[in-house]
Design brief:
It is built from 13 helices and nine strands. The two termini are 38 Å apart. By secondary structure, the protein is an alpha/beta fold.
Length: 332
């Protein structure tokens, strides 16, 4: 497989799963401390990636929870954010300035800050009140799933926590198997789209965050490709007018309650475009994951599959995923 290390991927996921006792201890601590709300705060990809967890709380809980862009939270008034707030952050590098500034802002408001990262000596890890460290470049979805369902469980709003958390031990093999199944699909996609410079990326429900992330952080930032990212529920309010026979559409289709939204988009798209690619999490076996828990794993499946797409686009286009014109290159 192109640019894929099976053992490293499995080790990264296992590293995240091994944090379960520490995350459970943190959840118990914040319950004892007391809180009125939770904020998942990020910038760019780390904002997009927490959107599913805001949705899970909305679906299962009466607790006020918000996913927020750090820079906006710092400037726009939010009367609920303060000493009774829990602020949750993630950072792959541990050095993103927008996130570091948001942490300092949260602490200045008296919020208790929790951070997930892979670098214990990073500015990020030093800045938060509670840093939970995994292997570098790990999968934050595992940590966020354990945190979210752990909080819900302690609130009496998710009775399946123990069974769900136990099943996460099957993820290293299940996610690698999904990546392996996606490999020929990704290679064919990249060959077909080596010269495509404009994409529609559409998702809904707990996959909307990854549609947003893939459009912005990969196709735009890492490949300098133009995109329109649109929520499946909003596709029919303006965006559909741009679809033509040669418009490339990339659809993320999950197994949560939003699936009918993406069915509707797909049914329309294949009528009016000859270039529709649907990544459907239902197409991946996810051995060891119960049917009732599959929707929670959807974002990880999309992450694994689109990573294969990215690697093959990088190869056929001769454009490194690490190449930047402006991001962290110039002052802005």
């Amino acid at each position: 497989m192109l640019g894929f290390n099976k053992e490293e991927t499995q080790a990264q996921i296992r590293s995240a799963i091994a944090l379960r006792p520490e995350i459970e201890k943190t959840v118990a601590f914040i319950e004892e401390r007391g809180y009125d709300n939770i904020y998942f705060i990020g910038a760019g990809g780390t904002y997009a990636a927490v959107l599913p967890y805001e949705l899970y709380f909305q679906a299962y809980s009466t607790l006020p929870v918000r996913a927020a862009i750090g820079k906006e939270l710092m400037l726009a008034q939010d009367a609920a954010f303060g000493e009774r707030s829990i602020a949750v952050f993630t950072s792959i590098s541990g050095t993103t300035e927008d996130v570091l500034e948001a942490i300092e802002f949260a602490k200045s408001r008296g919020a208790y800050t929790i951070g997930f990262t892979g670098y214990d000596d990073s500015p990020f890890a030093q800045a938060v009140d509670c840093s939970i460290i995994s292997a570098p470049k790990t999968w934050f979805d595992v940590q966020l799933l354990l945190f979210t369902t752990g909080v819900l469980s302690r609130r009496g709003e998710f009775d399946d926590y123990e069974a769900f958390a136990d099943e996460l031990t099957n993820l290293p093999d299940a996610i690698v198997a999904a990546a392996e199944r996606a490999e020929p699909i990704a290679e064919a996609f990249a060959r077909k789209h080596s010269d495509t410079d404009y994409y529609f990326v559409v998702g809904a429900g707990n996959l909307w965050g990854y549609a947003y992330l893939y459009s912005m952080c990969v196709l735009e930032e890492m490949q300098w490709l133009r995109t329109t990212r649109v929520h499946g529920a909003e596709f029919f309010h303006g965006s559909l007018e741009l679809i033509e026979k040669d418009t490339a559409l990339l659809l993320f289709k999950g197994e949560d309650q939003s699936r009918p939204l993406m069915d509707r988009v797909e049914n329309f798209a294949v009528k009016y475009s000859d270039d529709v690619t649907t990544i459907d999490t239902r197409d991946y076996a996810l051995e060891g994951v119960s049917e009732r828990f599959r929707p929670f794993i959807g974002p990880m499946v999309i992450d694994a599959v689109t990573h294969r797409f990215s690697k093959h686009l990088e190869a056929v286009r001769g454009h490194s995923l690490d190449l930047r014109r402006y991001y962290r290159v110039v002052e802005y």
